[in-house]
Model the fold of this input.
Amino acid sequence: MEINDITGAVIGAAIEVHRQLGPGLLESAYESCLHHELVHRGLKVERQKPLPVLYKTVRLDCGYRLDLVVEDCVIVELKSVERLEPIHKAQVLSYLKLSGCKVGLLINFNVEALVEGVQRVVLGL
Done:
């Protein structure tokens, strides 16, 4: 699958989850349901994948976890907040740098229409 196909599939699955559940739940509920929906659609998905920090020559386990990693190349960071802030995008950019992935999706489920809560984040070259 091409990266745009993967991100499109994730967004479509997230829209389905949002249609079924609506806004107002905890992030963990959306994560569980989105994971289920993506697997049901035949995608490879890792949930709560540990993300170590590489500092110089040392690999440090700092407790970071990626909400979802789809097809080994797209990081999906989920939120259920009043609005997305610049720090949320910075978080995804940091995850992209640390993981080696180039594309992430930041999805806020606490919106009336999910399209309002989706941001594609691309690590600059």
